[in-house]
Amino acid sequence: MTLSRRNFLKGSVATAIAANGLTLFPAGKVFASDTITIPSATHYGPFKAVVKSGTLIGVQPINDVDPFPTEMLTKGVLSRTYSDTRIKYPMVRKSLLEDPLGDHNPHLRGKEPFVRVDWDTAIALTAFCIARTVEKHGNEALFSSSYGGWSHCGVNRPQTLQGRFFNLIGGQSICAGDYSAGASEVILPHVIGDMEVYSPQTAWEIVEKNTEVVLFIGCDPWKTNRVEFRVADHSMQKHWEAFKAKGIKFVSINPQQTYTDKAVGSEMINIRPNTDTALFTAMSYHLYKTGQHDKAYIDKYTVGFDKYLAYLIGDEDGVAKTPEWAEEITGLPAAKIKELAELCVTKRTQIAAGWALQRADHGEMIHWSIINFAAIAGKIGKPGEGAGFSWHYGNGGMPASGKRMPIGLSQGRNPITKTCPVVMVSDMLKNPGKSYTRDGSNLTLPKAKLIYNAGNNLLSHQQDTNELIGALNDNIDTIICHEPWWCATAKYSDIVLPTTTTLERDDISSGGTYSNSKIYAMRQVIEPVGESLDDYEIFSRLAFMFNVHKEFTEGKTMYQHVKTSYEASDATEDFKTFWQNGITHVSTPAAANSFVRHGDFYADPDKNPLHTPSGKIELYSEALAGFKAKGCPPMPQWIPPFEWLGNAKKGQVHVLSPHPWMRLHSQMANADVNSHESVDGRQIVLINKKDAEERGVKDGDVVEVYNDRGALLAGARITDEAMPGVIYIHEGAWLQLDSKGRCNSGSINMLTSSQPTSGLAQATSANTCLAYFKKCTDAETPNQAYTPAKVVKSAFKVDIWSLQLGKRLKAVSAEQGPAQTPGEKLFYGSCTLCHAAPHPSDFTYKQWKGITNSMFPRAGLNEKDRKLVLDFLQKNAKKG
């Protein structure tokens, strides 16, 4: 039983819950008259909340919709709701509260206590800090770190509501790209005309009928399909089990045996991290050299083979990319590389590659090299074959309904066009206005002075934590945070506005990232804990201060917005019935079961060209050649990473940071279920037996992992499933620094680098990381990351009049731009829920046409809506 669990049971509310039983209620259980069930939904699945006298006492899964509910739903949701890490009242860091017009002592962030204030004071101080920043530096200085949207699975997410508010008062600088698939989402539209990483996969039925081999590459569907950006319904496992029963062969290229590998019995091929590009380059070479490449396919469906071939055979650099060449890089025997290439070309093979591969130095190369291999083998577009990059997410393979789903409030167009790639946040803070390139454009970083963070744990997400904290303290005047829990981002903020959890607000969501076959009511289950407010109410109050309340709310409550959103969908049940039942199903056409990824292109490439410049698969890209982006050649090439086992010093190991089993990034870290991820309250580190023995480490020991960027303490878990020379620390542990600056909790980003992948995508290279580890003998305290921030009383009262709010707010009020067109509303309401809203000018119209092929089904737009959005994008896209 973990420390957080013991603390949880100390609380009076939690004690009452415990007395009534912290048990899983079976789906058919009937309750007494004093107990009610309320349907709702989370990232972890749909459920019925069991509520007694206004208190949540359990979570009842809905088995006919979610056949495999996880403990994150059945136990974790309850545990974290009443956790003692809840922020119940508005909080202001002591220095800011006592001298709002003076020095806020930013170097004391994370160390100085907070003071509880009332909501009027909190809103006044928030409005003052925003207005003063605009007054001094302009709206560009307001920077949103709220790109993620993962805190809440409804359509009205915190970062969407934030965008709506700030865009009404003149805009804000925002993040670009994402941590999940940032390299591939930029390069693949040039290569195959679609982001691919967020695309529907070939339908399950087609795979079951046609596929002979599934090749996993850094891909673990069993784990990563446990959570979803909207509502997980865990409909994947039965299909993989059917594939196994049919006799489909599974091969896994991975330094670690995954949950999926164990479930389906994969043949394991352990590879050195960050070397997959060399592997697939050599496999392509082998097909060509042995005459097994599909020349007719290459001629009909691709361009650039001659240039790529010159690289393969060594005309460019004098080095033939043979399997023997790749053996020295990957650690795989040349004979195995040849065998793997021949297996893929002679069998109907579906390649399933994970996103984690491209979170590496030169990460743009890996998925591209897989596409080149699959094209040279003549696979892409054939039933049950080809390369897919979203099998591990959103039940990839589920047939899509094609129906319109509920849409959220529109963010509206942002008057500020300055963006910062997520991995460059620290660079932006240290070098405001610095020039950089992204996707062929020459840009400059925003000059940020205030960070607004709603629904995102910046201190967990961002690489190189020490660099980030230093940059924040040296350059940012104010950090404002919406947060239900005392995570690190809250503890390092100046103003903390306590927000409700998913269970304490109304919203609406849909089921199946790609299937869009269900709509869920996210009904409020309990009253807000403490004085917490939902994000809509907080931004509504701020909108009132800035005289844009009418525009922000449109005169509606959130419940009314939810009703309007539902009624605009293709659902057939009336809203009252839907809201009462909590779910409605949307039909899926039978033809969807025959969907083949790029099948139309394969059937007729002239009639159905890809949205690339050539209309074909680009094995070599003339567009990228013209960009001349640093570190990104115009075809997939093996480029040694800045850190890898090939240049490791004695004693160093490669550190990988995969997703956890019982968390969604840092969510659930403060819940009981995090005990699955911890040893004595610290994040686990998976270590191969040989590496552990060499360093005198035993299972359960506290281990110190360290490099030049930082250090952390973790709990050793010794395993045969990880290859020697590679250790695993799951991302998402909360941060707590000891007196030596080590994270006492095991937060992986103490070690990772903020160096971008290349000058093309400027994406994260978090999985390019070397470090040392040793047994720790000087841990100072138990892990204290999951304890609340220190709160003190202060006799100081803010003189609201001294802030001159009326004058300041009037001075910074923005002129309202033209009314949004219908297509613009749909774009900012449906198509930009995932991460920060992109600007229409981020891509050319041809690129948008390719990207929206995947975006529209996920957004759940019908044909009429799609045309409206495309018309808007055509008028506002990047020229070229």
Automatic annotation (TrEMBL):
PROSITE patterns found in the cross-reference section: TAT
Pfam families named among the record's database cross-references: Molybdopterin (PF00384), Molybdopterin_N (PF18364), Molydop_binding (PF01568)
Record GO cellular component, one term: outer membrane-bounded periplasmic space
Domain (Molybdopterin dinucleotide-binding) ranges: 655-769
Listed GO MF terms: electron transfer activity; heme binding; molybdenum ion binding; molybdopterin cofactor binding; oxidoreductase activity
GO biological process: anaerobic respiration
Keywords: Metal-binding, Molybdenum, Oxidoreductase, Signal
Residue ranges occupied by any Molybdopterin oxidoreductase N-terminal domain in the UniProt entry: 40-82
Gene3D superfamilies cross-referenced by the UniProt entry: 2.40.40.20, 3.40.50.740, Dimethylsulfoxide Reductase, domain 2, Dimethylsulfoxide Reductase, domain 3
Keyword Signal tagged: yes
The keyword Oxidoreductase is assigned to this record: yes
Molybdopterin oxidoreductase domain residues: 86-543
Cofactor dependency: Mo-bis(molybdopterin guanine dinucleotide)
Protein family membership: Belongs to the prokaryotic molybdopterin-containing oxidoreductase family.
Name of the protein this chain belongs to: Molybdopterin-dependent oxidoreductase
Annotated source species: Photobacterium phosphoreum
